[in-house]
# Entry
Amino acid sequence: MTARIDESRPFIPVRIAVLTISDTRTPKTDKSGPLLVSMIKDAGHVAAEHAVAPDEEKKIRKQVRKWIKAKDVDVVITTGGTGFTGRDVTPEAVRPLFDKEIDGFSVLFHMLSYQTVGTSTVQSRACGGLAKDTLIFCVPGSPGACEDAWNGILKFQLDNRHRPCSFIELMPRLTESKKKKAKAS
# Structure
């Protein structure tokens, strides 16, 4: 079976928050965050919120944690801070929030990115994970990297019509073990 969109199924929009992480970008000069918001809306999803945070672990973690707790956010996408410089701290800020890491996201992102930037893809620490029932994806800060991540992975995995499967189908089941533990206590 090959991957495809099953047009006979109704589309289910999800609510996605975007966080641009940069010491040099402002809401007016940011290109990657607005690009992600545009692609999210073009796909039929809801852009729940867009914010800009400096490359500071505590501020990044605080914003992402806020969205994890929010009932109107299903997915968080961060852009920026995934490199190797001293100020690049997005993975360090976000990974401690993960209950589970989505290893395949990083692997597939690097495969796709290699087609665009060649071996320079090794300079990215793109990652993905699950925190409670919120999916989180951290991608590099360039518009090209955002396009690679969205068009090559997220556009499909956040579309419930994607066959053979998508993250959206799993969303109602993401906290199953926690619900069982709560009932047992």
